[in-house]
Amino acid sequence: MSQDGTSQETKRGLRPWLKVLLGVSLALNLAVVGLGAGAAWRFRDGPPMAEGPPMLGRFVFKDLGRKEIRRLLREGSAATGGAPDRRRAEMGQVIALIKAETLDVPAMNAVLDAHIVETSAFMRSVVQAWGQRLEGMSLKDRRRLADRMQRRMEHDPHHSRRSHDDFHEGRRGDLSD
């Protein structure tokens, strides 16, 4: 003990490793609080709302299901060459046209028109497949599908898990009670 009644250890203060440990702990605590505050600030208004009623095409795609859409894509790309290769070639053409010294608008329009024709052909095949699906449904199943469409149009599915599940129920083809 020294003359003023304190030990030598308390005069020395905190050990250096303890200062580092407390500094790291403080930094981690501030990081966690910052992440929480940032997330709360970012999502303070909830999920973004879609403008207006949902697109019919989106409903049709979800109702048909991923497997059927992929099958239609494969069929369409078999007739016109591989879809990934065609998309890459289109993008290459557009990039080259945009980078050119002078913009060749007719050539750009030709590439985009060809893309529209391909997309339109695919959409026609989707519409035909969905029409066949509807023809194979009973009146009861069609009405349930129409009710799901109505609920989807009236309510945003992000607000209610139940309406989200009801909407996706038809994708699995399980329409029975």
Tell me what the structure shows.
The chain has two domains: 8-42; 56-172, no CATH class. 73% of the residues lie in helices and 0% in strands. Mean pLDDT is 77; it is low at 171-177. The relative contact order is 0.08. It has helices at residues 8-12, 16-42, 56-64, 66-80, 83-99, 105-135, 139-154, 161-169. The protein has 177 residues and is mainly alpha-helical. It has eight helices and no strands.
Number of strands: 0
Radius of gyration: 31 Å
Number of domains: 2
Q: Give start-end ranges of low-pLDDT stretches.
A: 171-177
In short:
The chain is 73% helix and 0% strand. By secondary structure, the protein is mostly helical.
Quick tags:
disordered C terminus; 73% helix; mainly alpha; 177 residues
Present the secondary structure layout.
Layout: H1 8-12, H2 16-42, H3 56-64, H4 66-80, H5 83-99, H6 105-135, H7 139-154, H8 161-169
